[in-house]
Amino acid sequence: MSAAPTADSTANVASTPTYQTTSLAESMLLLAMLTVFQRGIGFVRGVLFCRWLPAEQLGLWDLVFGFLMLAGPLVVLGIPGSFGRYVEHYRQKGQLRTFLYRTTVATVALSTIGCGLLWLFHEQAAVILFKDASLAPIIPVVALTLIAVVGFNYFVELFIAMRQMRMVSALQFVNSVLFAVIGLGLLLWYDNSAESVILSYGIACSVTVVMGGVVLTRDWKQVPLCDRVPMQSEFWSKLLPFAAWLWAINLLSNLFEVVDRYMIVHFSGLTPEESITLVGDYHSSRVVPWLMVAVANLFGGILLPHLSADWERGERSKVSQQLNLLLKASSMVMMAGAIVIGLTAPFLFEYVFEGKYSGGLEVLPWTLTYCVWYSLVGCAMLYFCCAEKTHVGAIVFGIGLAANVGLNALLLPMWGLTGAVIATALANAIAIVLALFLAHRHGMEIQKSTLLLAAAPFLLGLGWQVALSVWIVLLWQAYAGSWVFDTQEKQSLQNGLDVLTSKFRSRT
C-alpha cells in the first residue's frame, strides 16, 4: 500500500494543475474568437442547407439532429456531463487518473451497447422518429454517427472541465469546418438528401474524436499516479447520483427542446411527408436564432468549472452574484441579437432561402422568444450543478416538458406550426420562472432586475418595434442608472472587458 501523502504534497496537488489550464478571461476571449469563426461557418452552412435541400429533406435532417442531441448524453448515462463538476474535485484529491480511466471505460462500453441496439431495431426506430418505416435504411447511418457524436461530446466536456480552452476551440472549429466542407461537398457531388448531411456530421465528429484521443494520450502521461485509489463502490456512489440526475436533466431538457417537432410529426394529422416538410419550415426559423443558444451553452460550459471552484471554496454569495450578472447580461445581449435577426429576416427568407419557407418567417418572432428563454434556463441550471442539486433541474425540465406537450396538444391542431411555436415559447416561460423560483428556494439570491430582464424576451413575440423601444430604455438604464446593473456589476463587466481587450491586443 502506498504511503499517505504529506500535507505539503497534498497542498501542491490541490493548488497546481497537472495540465495546462486557461484562465476565465482568456477562456472568454477564445470563446469570442471561436464564435466569430465557427458560428460564421455554421451560419453559412445552415443557410446553404436550407437553400439546397428540399423542405422534406431539411425536416428529416432536423429530426435526426434532434435525436442525436437527445441520444448522445442518454446512452452514456450522463457521465461525461459530470466532468465540469468533478474533474476539479478529483484533481484536488490527487485521483484524476483513476477518474479519467473509469469514466472513459464506462463511456465506451455504454455507447457501444446503445448504438448497437439502435442498429438492431432500426425499423422500430424509423417509426418512432419519422412515423415512416420506409426510412429504416437511414437508421444504421444514424447509429454510426451517434457513436461519433458521443465521442465528440466526451472530449469537449472533458477539455472544458480541464480548462483547456485552446483544445476546446480547436475541436469545435475543426468540427464546424469539416461538417460544412464535407456536407456541402456531398450535397453537390453525391446526393442532395439528408443522408449526405448525416454522413458529413458523423465524419466531422469522428475526426475530432481522433484529435481528442491524441491529446488525451499525451496529457495522460502528465497526470500523476493516485496516492489512494478509491474503491469502486466509493467512486461510483459519489459520481453516479450526480450523473444520474444530470442524465435525467439531459433527457428531459433535450426532449423539451425537440418534442414540438415530434408532436408535429405524430399529432398534426398530416401525412409523414407533409409533417416532415412542416418541420423543415420550422427548421428554417431556427437557423439563426439557435446560434444564440449554442453560444449561451458554450459560455455556461466554460463558466461552470470556475463557479464550481468558487463553490468549493465556500464563496456561495459570489456564485449568486456571478449568475445574476450572467442572466442579465445574457438577456440584454440576446435580445439585441434577436431584434437584429428579426429586422433582417425578410431579406434572408425572400432572397437567400428563395421564398421556400414562408411558414418559418411567420413564426420567427416566437422562435426567437423561446430561444432566448431556453438559453436563460440553461444559465439558471448552473446553480443547481454547483449545489449538487441536479434533481431540481430535472424537476424544472420535467414540468416544462409536460407543459410543452400539453400546450402543443391544445394549440397545434388549431393554429398549425404557429401554435406549436407559441406553445414551446410558453413552456419555456414556465421553465425559466420555475428555475429561478427553485434556485431562490435553494439559496440563490435573485435580484429584481434579474426577474425583469428574464421576462423581457416576451416582447419579441409582440413585434420588433415594441421590443426595440423597450430594449433601448433598458440599455440606457444599464448605462446611466444602477437598477439594471449596480456599481459592482458594472465594474466587473468593465474589468472583464479590459482583460479581454488587453489579451486580444497582445495576440495581434
How would you summarize the topology of this molecule?
Blueprint: H1 7-15, H2 24-52, H3 55-75, H4 83-92, H5 96-120, H6 122-130, H7 139-161, H8 165-189, H9 194-220, H10 232-267, H11 272-286, H12 289-312, H13 316-352, H14 358-386, H15 390-415, H16 417-441, H17 448-455, H18 464-480, H19 487-507
Helix pairs in contact: 2-8, 2-12, 2-19, 3-7, 3-9, 3-10, 3-11, 4-5, 4-7, 4-12, 5-7, 7-8, 7-9, 8-9, 10-11, 10-15, 10-16, 11-14, 12-13, 12-14, 13-14, 13-17, 13-18, 14-16, 15-16
Please report the total strand number as a whole number. Answer: 0
Helix content: over 70%
- Outline, from the CA principal axes? globular
Strand content: under 5%
- What is the CA-based Rg, rounded? 23 Å
Could you state the order of secondary-structure elements as H and E?
A: HHHHHHHHHHHHHHHHHHH
Average pLDDT for all residues: 86
Spatial separation of the terminal alpha carbons: 52 Å
If helices are DSSP runs of H or I spanning 4 or more residues, what is the number of helices?
A: 19
Task: Supply the number of structural domains.
Answer: 2
Broad structural category:
mainly alpha
Largest sheet: none
Unreliable stretches:
1-16
Transmembrane segments: 28-48, 60-79, 99-121, 133-156, 168-190, 196-218, 239-256, 287-304, 325-349, 364-385, 392-411, 417-439, 451-476
Main location: membrane
InterPro entries: Poly_Biosynth_Transport, Polysacc_synth
Membrane topology: Multi-pass membrane protein
